[in-house]
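cache lookup: miss for this entity combination. No prior model stored, computing from scratch. Input as submitted by user K.M.:
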Amino acid sequence: MSLAIPASNTLATGAPLVRNEERPACRYEDLGRMDYTLAWELQRDYVERRKAGLIEDRLLFVEHPHVVTLGRNAKNENLLLTAERYRELGIDLQTTDRGGDVTYHGPGQIVGYPILDLKEWKRDVVAYVRALEQVMIGAVGEFGIEAEQVCGCTGVWVKGAKLAAIGVHISRWVTSHGFALNLAPPMEYFGYIVPCGLTKPITSMELLLGEAPRRAEVVKALQEHFGLVFGRRMEPQSLTRE
Amino acid sequence: MSDVLMPQMGESIVEGTITKWMKKVGDPIQRDEPLFEISTDKVDSEVPSPVAGVLEEILVQEGETVEINTLVARVGDGSGVGKKPPKTEAKKEEPQEAAPVKAAKAEEKKDEPAPAPQAKGEKRAEAAPDANGRIRSSPLVRRLAKEHSVDLSDVTGTGQGGRISKRDIEAYLKDREDKPARKDAPAAAGKSAAVSGDLLTAFRPAPEARFGDYTVEPLSTMRRKIAEHMVMTKRFAAHVSTVHQIDCTAIAKERARVKDKFLEQNGVKLTFMPFFLRASAVALKEFPTVNASLDGSDVIYHRDVNVGIAVALDWGLIVPVIRKVDEKSVLGLQRAVNDLADRARKKQLKPDEIQQGTFSISNYGGYGSLFATPAINQPQTSILGLGAIHKAPVVIDDAIAIRSISYVTLSFDHRLIDGAVADQFLTRLKDVIENWSGPVL
């Protein structure tokens, strides 16, 4: 049976209380609307550069056109339509190297890709996933949503409905892929898959609040809570890309 | 031939599932190239190959879940593909005073995962054949048994009904390796004697200590291991210490000069450790016996300079190792020191980070000690102790000057190293520190 663990908005991860200037930096950028495969290529580039120590940690925010992605643990029976039917509906189908089963991304969903070197945080992938959950729980808390972690079910939950999903890839302790928070996606698209192989209901901030807050505000909250939970000094990535 | 193990991707993780083999048996692979992927809780992790070579054997298939540190593959030079893996060398035996042989596994100082536990001296439950006369085991286990010439009826099966799993056969093989002639054989090489030999146990009963008002607390596992190591190192190494006074004024000045810029540029605070690490590396390269280890009566001269840094923990002591110190810059060394100490305190060190040291440094000066005689960290033959850097009057050119000095001790194993070498080593180290000219920033 799953156990609900209520989250707190304080430093639950035990991140050390370090003065902001002394924290390692993490640059965040909102890439806006970007195709899934293009964003994946971009991530891979960042990952290599991070491994080489050429850049510091990054946090990328992006919004994808309709796409169903299959992670490393994907089971075909969680795709409820044929490839052709997905195409007809304008939904892209992609196999990817993140952990997890099948999920959907689309407009109205805030997708976050932290490119973090876990050697400089904690060499613990489970702790990383829990920390990502904490980031989102903290962020949505700012909008009045009381979300929680559920033991045994990765993701962010509100009264048994899934608000956000997580799927990560690690290469030499550098992370890629990350999380997807439902701001105001078209919910019927989730009906075309068995998300993450679970039959639990999916929800969104729009459904919970009646009206979706502005994307920019939610991204801001996510980025701030990311800095808090991971002990990073968050800095916006300048528009002129290196 | 290198063993590839299921890695532990986090503190609380006890097993992993292989999701994908990136290579097939017979494929070449580079060191650090992704060899396979595992998944844990929505995280898919690439696992790199520990060495370059050819993937010779895959022991765990995609979709299978095994415990961490389980052998999943072997990478070698290509000759072992499809054949029996080469025989591992039998451990050297040394004649000891007739210590009774116990069936217990010899304990090593380093953290090594124990295979299926085998009780001391109990009669082992041998695997019983099933109704068809066959021992319950999987095809993989039977193949392993055949390859290693193992009679399955000799193997203890820990599965249901005495079923033999892959772990059971691996445990049997490891056991067979460690005690090649099990009956009436003298105990193996000295380092295990501290546990299995009656004469060399680390503890003695003292019931007379139980007087008055007292509480009792048995020693933790870590504390026991430390105790056993300390007794063993003092028993085997002929400890002698020599002390030199080192004038640290030059490096103190250099550090004061650059520390703000260093912190700003690199995000880490500069301490004295990188200076002593670099000086040690220079001296160790010039005096290879100080960097050597003793295996029985063989001297192992290491080409690498891997220095362990003693870290005091609330619950004990641990010595994580910085590899190839001679190849690292001051910044690289400072980062390594901070990282290892930090992860030591958070219990996040990996087993291989406390192994393969060739020399150690104990910075007890940080706790106020002016002068001490540290114990050698086996199987090394020397350890450097750093006393507190403090201002003191010294005589220079027949005049008194105030300088920052430290009493630096080298405790060395007199079986291998003589005083003259130890003193020459320290003189060289002192020379590097007192005439520091290397780049710091």
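stored under new cache key. Chain A has a mean pLDDT of 87.
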